[in-house]
Structures are given as structure tokens and as C-alpha cells.
Design brief:
Blueprint (H helix, E strand, L loop, with lengths): L7 E2 L2 E4 L2 E4 L5 E5 L6 E6 L3 H16 L8 H16 L2 H12 L3 H8 L2 H15 L3 E5 L4 E8 L2 E5 L7 H13 L2 E6 L5 H13 L6 E5 L2 H9 L5 E5 L2 H13 L3 E5 L5 E4 L5 H10 L15 E5 L3 H13 L19 H17 L2 E4 L16 E4 L6 H4 L6 E7 L2 H9 L3 E2 L2 E4 L3 H10 L6 E2 L13 E2 L2 E2 L4 H6 L2 E9 L5
Parallel strand pairs: 1-5, 8-9, 8-11, 9-10, 11-12, 13-14, 13-19, 14-17, 16-17, 19-20
Antiparallel strand pairs: 2-3, 4-5, 6-7, 7-23, 12-22, 15-16, 18-21
Length: 489
């Protein structure tokens, strides 16, 4: 596509079925990470704006038609919404590149097509899901009902504002919930495109509401008595805060949090296959700004130098630059402050004794944008902070292991447990490793997550699951109704 940036400014939120002017006198500039130019402006919600959105969702759930429609009727409306999103693919691709920094080929799939796919897949699930089933037991004949949890607050991160947002909204709608989508401040514009699609699709008022909020107002949303469920994707520290807030009121929460995932290379690894594969799912995947990045490469000690040399060559050759250019693989960091944070980790690695084998600085030939060279830190041990903490940038560490058992122990020696991979020519050995590493997702000689399977993490990588039928089940409550049984008199 021919890439032409548009400036998009809003003074409204999408609340109760329409675009309503914000009550706020505060706004946020949306700055493109690729050019450092202002490409939009959005209002920041006041406490009253949050209340309006929650009240609209509450009315729609308590008194509206959405929870009372049949699953098939909800599915039809969701497919209609997916069609409306399809008509906006060009806008979504542009915003993926311009406000989030996605390489354009990735934006054309992940940003432009996945949101609609999320709604279609969950529509299919809704039509086959057992919202009510009869059970005959020794004490009674019962109905087991799965009822919508209520009003859900969906809070996606900056690296997937719409795709990860609809990963929450779609199953919530399929279950019969109503939703407030809280867009990230850094890149909220795609969520406005989504609101336009909701408007066009004609969903009942209050079923979907969209706003942008800063920290205090976001906490108001999370703690609002009208909210029954919070689904958050983002950093573990913020997730812990949300868990604390929800725990006070026994509010349901799904938390998809950080990762420090391990790519385990066994002794027989074929470098011609494994090195490009690991590079693709680490530094070259969204510049490492992704929770599933394989950011710890666990390497056989006997082949350490050979493997580190191969990674240094491939990582050093990755083209960095404007994500609108199809020849570029590494785009910009989301903000200048985030780039500073990642650079701080590179310096920390040096202080801890690691060696920068490639990268480590800013590209000298790029004048605008928050770009950073993909970086390989060698000579690392698993107890270093750069090996234990999520960097969330194009930085990987290479850690030696002394055999399969040692490699699994290193992989599991982490506060996180989100994803992982193993690279070997022996499938039986690979499956053995996969079963032993404590993570929510894992892959053999690749990294991928099928959207029909549950996604989530162990330990500090979160609570609950998204995607697949398990994603919908995060938005239901179980009710058992004894229909007949022995007399109590």
C-alpha cells in the first residue's frame, strides 16, 4: 500500500451507543514513534467520564437486550461487527505502522485482520458453547448454567491496542457481557476506528464503550462498583496492582502479564534452522516489545562460541528503520522514554559482566524516530538482572547450559512462565522438554500460538487464559439449579 499518514484528532468517547463529548479539559498527543510527529490528539477521561461509561454498560447488562439474546443472535451481531472492521483494514494497517511502530507486513495481518478474526472465532464458539446443560446425579437432576459475569473492563497494552483489546472484548460479548474498552494512552487511535465499526454495526447502546484514561482514572475503572470483571494485559507490576485492587472487592480478573521466555537449544541443534527461527521470535518480533519474546537463549556450553557467533551475525544484519518500508525488520520503540529504559538494561548488562556482541546503540543513519539496534548480550548467567527481568525491547541474552536437565532448570529458574521453545532434531526429546518447562505456552522448533488454544502464563506471567473456548469461560459464572430431588420434609 502507499503509505500516507493522516492526523486524527478526537474530542469524544464512544459511550452508550454514540460519540459523546468528553467532560475532560485534559488531552494527550499521539506521537508517531517512527517520525516523532504528532499524528493525533485524544481526550483523557475524567472520573465522571469513567462513571458514564460504566453506567451505560451497567444499564445495558441489567436492563438491555444483549445478555438476553440467544447465542446465535449475539454471534450474528459479532459477525456484522467483523465485517465493519474488514472495511477499515487500510486505516488499521496505517495506524499499526504509524502509532505503534509495527513493520508494515505485520500490521497488515496482526492489526488489520486479527481483530475481525477474534469476533468471528468467538461467534463460532458462542454457537456451540454449552451455556446450559442437564446433569443427573445421585442427589438431584440439575441444570448447570453458565451465565455472563456482567460488566467487563478490558485494558489492552500499547503493543496490541486493538488486537489484544478485541481478544478481550470478543469473548466477553460472546458470553453476554457488556464492556468498557480502555485504550492505551500511547496509541489509542486504532481503538477509535474500532468504535466507529461498533457504531456502524448497530450493537445496542452501552454494550461496547471506548475511552482513554490516565492512571488515576484507570484505577477508578478497575475499582468501580459497577464493574464485575477486569481483563488486563501488560506489565507484571501493573498487573499486581490490579490484582490487589480487585482482590479487595472479590472482583474477577484475568491478567496476561510479562515474560522472560527461554529458547532452549539442545546439543544436536541445526543452526541453519534454529538461529533464524529464534531471531524471528525474539528481537525481530515487534522489536522485542512483546511478552512472548524468546529473550533468553539457552545454549549448549560445548557449542557456545559457535552459536553466539551465528546469532551475532544474523542479529547484526537485521535492517533497522521506518516500519513503512517493507525492507525493514526492526521498527522503533513505542516512546523515547521506553527506548531510554531499554538502553539502561543494555548498560546494566555491561556492568554485570556481559559482552555486547552486536548492537547496543542507536542507528547512526536515522535522524528521526525512537530506533534502537537489535542487541545480543553474551557471557551471561541466569542470575543477572538482564536474564531475570523483562526488558521488552530488541535485546537477548545467551546463557550456556551443561545438558538437557540443566537447560530445563535454567528455563524454570525465572519468576515468569509465559512461553518457551526448544530447538532440536529429536522430537521425542523436544516433547520431553516441553512437558517439563513450566510455561503456559510452548513450541517445538518454532514459536506460534494457535488462536483456538488457551493463552496465558504460570507464576508472575499472570492469572487466567485468553483465546479458545477457555477465553470465553473467563467471562461466565457457573450456577447450579436443582430441578428435582428428594423431599426435605
Amino acid at each position: 500500500m502507499e503509505f500516507a499518514t493522516q492526523t486524527r484528532s478526537y474530542d469524544t468517547f464512544f459511550v452508550d451507543g454514540g460519540f459523546a463529548r468528553s467532560l475532560s479539559d485534559r488531552s494527550a498527543e499521539v506521537v508517531s514513534p517512527r517520525t516523532e510527529e504528532v499524528i493525533g490528539r485524544v481526550p483523557l477521561a475524567t472520573a465522571e467520564d469513567v462513571d458514564r461509561a460504566v453506567d451505560a454498560a451497567r444499564r445495558a447488562f441489567d436492563h438491555g437486550e444483549w445478555p438476553r439474546l440467544t447465542p446465535g443472535e449475539r454471534a450474528a451481531a459479532m459477525r456484522r461487527l467483523a465485517d465493519c472492521l474488514d472495511r477499515r483494514q487500510a486505516d488499521l494497517t496505517e495506524l499499526g505502522v504509524d502509532e505503534t511502530g509495527y513493520p508494515i507486513a505485520f500490521s497488515e495481518t496482526y492489526m488489520a485482520t486479527m481483530p475481525a478474526l477474534n469476533f468471528r472465532m468467538n461467534a463460532d464458539i458462542a454457537e456451540s458453547y454449552p451455556f446450559e446443560e442437564e446433569r443427573d446425579g445421585p442427589a438431584a437432576r440439575s441444570l448447570v448454567r453458565r451465565e455472563p459475569v456482567g460488566v467487563a473492563a478490558a485494558i489492552p497494552p500499547f503493543n496490541g491496542p486493538l488486537t489484544l483489546g478485541t481478544q478481550k472484548v470478543a469473548p466477553a460479548l460472546a458470553a453476554g457481557c457488556t464492556v468498557i474498552l480502555k485504550a492505551p494512552v500511547q496509541d489509542p487511535l486504532a481503538c477509535y476506528i474500532f468504535a466507529e465499526a461498533v457504531d456502524e454495526a448497530g450493537l445496542p447502546p452501552g454494550v461496547v464503550n471506548v475511552l482513554v484514561a490516565d492512571v488515576a482514572e484507570s484505577e477508578r475503572l478497575v475499582t468501580h462498583p459497577g464493574v464485575d470483571k477486569v481483563s488486563f494485559t501488560g506489565s507484571t507490576p501493573v498487573g499486581k496492582r490490579i490484582a490487589e485492587l480487585c482482590g479487595r472487592d472479590m472482583r474477577r480478573a484475568t491478567l496476561e502479564l510479562g515474560g522472560k521466555s527461554a529458547a532452549i537449544m539442545l546439543d544436536d541443534v541445526d543452526l541453519a534452522k534454529a538461529v533464524p527461527g529464534i531471531v524471528a521470535c525474539s528481537v525481530a518480533m515487534l522489536q522485542g516489545e512483546i511478552c512472548t519474546a524468546q529473550s533468553r537463549i539457552i545454549v549448549p556450553r560445548s557449542r557456545y562460541d559457535e552459536i553466539v557467533d551465528a546469532f551475532a551475525e544474523q542479529i547484526g544484519a537485521l535492517p533497522v528503520g521506518d516500519p513503512a518500508d517493507r525492507d525493514k525488520v526492526i521498527g522503533p520503540m513505542i516512546t523515547s522514554a521506553h527506548r531510554d529504559r531499554v538502553e539502561g538494561y543494555i548498560e546494566l548488562g555491561r556492568q554485570e559482566g556481559a559482552t555486547v556482541r552486536t548492537g547496543g546503540g542507536r542507528p547512526q543513519d536515522i535522524e528521526r524516530g525512537w530506533y534502537l539496534e537489535p542487541t545480543l548480550l553474551a557471557g551471561c548467567t541466569n542470575d543477572m538482572r538482564v536474564s531475570q527481568e523483562e526488558i521488552f525491547g530488541p535485546v537477548v541474552v545467551a546463557i550456556p547450559h551443561a545438558g538437557t536437565d540443566d537447560a530445563v532448570a535454567i528455563a524454570n529458574d525465572s519468576p515468569f512462565g509465559l512461553s518457551g521453545t526448544v530447538w532440536t532434531e529429536d522430537e521425542d526429546a523436544a516433547l520431553d522438554v516441553a512437558r517439563r518447562v513450566r510455561t503456559g505456552t510452548f513450541a517445538l522448533n518454532t514459536y506460534t500460538v494457535d488462536p483456538t488454544t488457551p493463552f496465558g502464563g504460570y507464576k508472575e506471567s499472570g492469572i487466567g487464559r485468553e483465546m479458545g473456548v477457555e477465553g470465553l469461560e473467563g467471562y461466565v459464572e457457573y450456577k447450579s439449579i436443582a430441578v428435582s430431588g428428594p423431599s426435605l420434609t
